[in-house]
Amino acid sequence: MNHSITGPEEPFRRISVDEAKRMMESLYVQVVDVREPKEFVTGHIAGATLIPVDQLLARSAELNEETHLIFVCAAGVRSALASEMAAAVGRDSIYNMEGGMEEWLRRGYPVEL
To answer: Following DSSP, what letter does each residue of 48-86 receive, concatenated?
Structure first.
């Protein structure tokens, strides 16, 4: 393979919390929270699907093929890994919410318990 100096391009787009919120308000999206259940119950984005990152490949059939996928975790690291996994199983329109739930809460955006 012939890659540029910066390396291969990621198969997903990194978006800010503000961009993610705008997408959730105006587009048909599936928000996939890849944190552990004990983290999820402390507060999550309304309507988010909980699929812990270590279960994502086994549960990839739960990723909606008709929508944009926004992956969320605590800070944006596990969700980037999940985004890579989703691309590996053939999904596209993949977005990683940079800053994760920490930034979502810092912005004062709503959560469900």
So the answer is: -EE--GGGTTTTGGGS-TTSEEEEE-SSSHHHHHHHHHH
Among 62, 84, 77, residue whose Cα is nearest residue 8 = 84
How many other CB atoms are found less than 10 A from the CB of residue 65?
Answer: 11
All domains of the chain in start order, with CATH: 17-106 (3.40.250.10)
pLDDT tens for 27-78 read 899 999 999 999 999 999 999 999 999 999 999 999 999 999 999 999 999 9
pLDDT tier at 17, thresholds 50, 70, 90 = very high
pTM of the model: 0.92
Residues near 30 by beta carbon (within 8 Å), at least 6 away in sequence: 49, 63, 64, 67, 68, 69, 70
Residue with tokens 């990683």: 96
